Amino acid sequence: MELLENLKWRYATKKFDFGKKVNDEDLEKLKEAIQLAVSSYGLQLYKVLIISEEKLKEKLRTVSWDQSQITDASHLFVFCNYSERNDKHVDDYIKAVSDIQQTPMEKLEGYQNLIKQSLGSKNDDEWQSWSQKQTYLAMSNLLTACAELKIDACPIEGFESEKYNEILGLGQKGLNACVIVPVGYRSNDDHTQFRKKVRKPMAELFEMV
After folding, report:
1. Cα(16)–Cα(27) distance, rounded to whole angstroms?
2. Contact criterion met (CB below 8 Å) for 56 and 50
3. What residues contact residue 190 under an 8 Å CB cut-off, 6+ apart?
4. The dihedral of CA 178, 4, 152, 142: what is its sign?
5. CATH of domain 2-33+43-84+132-205
6. Pairwise CA distance, residues 84 & 10, whole Å
7. What percent of the chain has pLDDT above 90?
């Protein structure tokens, strides 16, 4: 299974080669992999910013614990969850289902109301937790696709989310920076790549019931 070999190859890259850039063709493949990610109800309640502008990456590095991956990587993916509930997201999704699957809207009303009722029953803390988890599902597809294409990546939670929101103007869009992933190509000087991967033994990680 080639996927397993690719996953063994990948690691959380600590030092990128600044001179190597992800080409447009591969970038489109990464975007499509994210687009195809699973999400609760199929809503995809997130937006992904892809940043390549060097001055902007330098500004974001100052609020990312000065981690060099932010500026040295080819592109910085910023996964943003929607910070507030909005029925329009559900309505737009149901309309897309109707159009793409050629299903009359009236046949989807029950599902539409079910989604709204389920999301509406969450308190603010539950909503934030649920909404942020959606971005991690999408991020997982990005990391797997990167491994398939032999593109390096490093998921990062160590950054000031509120500062990202301010710098990128996310607040007025109802968005919140949740997790970031620099992508590019590992530097030969990144000694982390030579470390053996450490994972729990199968017998400890899994239990057949």
Report:
1. 17
2. no
3. 13, 14, 15, 16
4. negative
5. 3.40.109.10
6. 35
7. 98
